[in-house]
Amino acid sequence: MTSAYGQEENKGFVVDEIIAKVDNYIVLKSELERAYQDYITNGGTPSQEARCQYLAILVRNKLMVAKAEIDSVIVEESQVDNNLQRRFDLILGQYNGSPQQLEAAYGKSIDQIKADIYDLVKEQLVVQRMQEEITKDVTVTPAEVKRFFNKIPKDSIPFLSAEVEVGQIVRVAKVSDEQKEETKRKLIALRERILKGEDFATLARQYSEDPSVVANGGDMGFVGRGMMVPEFEAMSFKLKAGEISMPVETDFGFHIIQLIDRRGNEYNSRHILMSPAPSNQDLKDATDFLDSIRVLILNDSIKFDKAAKEFSDDDQTKSSGGFFADQEGGTFVSVDELDPVIFFSLDTMKVGGVSKPVAYRTDTQKDAVRIFYYKSRIPPHEASLKDDWNKIESFTLNEKKNRLLYKWFEKARQDVFISIDPTYDYCRLLE
């Protein structure tokens, strides 16, 4: 027999405990302990108050999920599936990409692990969607920003890490037509083997360069329109169920694609990816090109931001003149948030310098070279309105959103049933 809050009374031990109920949703003791331990691990001070704060967050999240159901606020399954796959790939990467190691560590099958992650991911996306709906109209005025900052006690003004303005110009090594044709021939040969009866997933694990292939055998799961690159999506909608395409080129390389199933605007496909590798001469050509751009910048024949917009192959930074941006869109980035490779590159440079071309792999796993421009640096300092307006504005906005979310919680909790284990009465969450 299980008690109202989850104890196995007849067996004399606790499997897990339900410590709160919000309509049909529950908070488990293990959820609270995991969140609290993460807080401690990250340097938090152990206290009952902190534990209560995390319990309040968990209850509020369950309330948002319950209210989302009442208010018909939904997230697309394709969005959940894509977030699930990214989360799973990150976890799998911690175990050297080995499903066997992952299953051994969790004591569960891959399908069971994914099922557990699915529920967590879906809840997080629903909570995020609800928070966006509740706070979408919140803005702050300059006067509110100043009031917020002036209310901070002098001995509590945050001390900010060093920040830098750094930009990059990227040149992807252009692959020769001969190498592209060779890659296509390899994929066509694999296609023929599959048509003759060999297993698609087995060949995908053996030959595909998609990192997720270790876990999924090339199966991308159901996704909606706009979730994959255009060339991949277009071919997937052209194919009939079971049909395998000829090689298709995308930014990632060449694919052969098999449509597994389609339902409306969603489709499930699998693929094998191969990326033709550039030759040493291709990499030298890219390096020489950036060397020439670097000389022009150093001679002041062209401004760095103009050169980035005109010549860079990196879509994420070229529109901002090559500069990396923080979460608010500002060009000053905390050194704590920099990619380690960029951080150590800057460590060897002077402010105002432009680096020599450096080889690297892009996010789409292409061989490329890039140059860095170290524009400026703000040393570690106490926050001020003059130097840190954007950050303080963001703090002010978040504080205002949190106040609105608290008011929403106080009102919304009247619409649903909430019960909390008496063990946590000291948190006084329902008063």
TrEMBL record:
A molecular function annotated in GO for this UniProt entry is:
peptidyl-prolyl cis-trans isomerase activity
Keyword Signal assigned to the entry: answer is yes
- Cytoplasm as a keyword of this entry, yes or no, is no
Keywords of the record, alphabetical order, are: Isomerase, Rotamase, Signal
InterPro entries in the cross-refs: OMP_Chaperone_SurA, PPIase_dom_sf, PPIase_PpiC, PPIase_PpiC_CS, Trigger_fact/SurA_dom_sf
Protein name, as recorded:
Peptidylprolyl isomerase
Q: Which PROSITE patterns match?
A: PPIC_PPIASE_1, PPIC_PPIASE_2
- Outline the extent of the PpiC domain: 161-261, 264-358
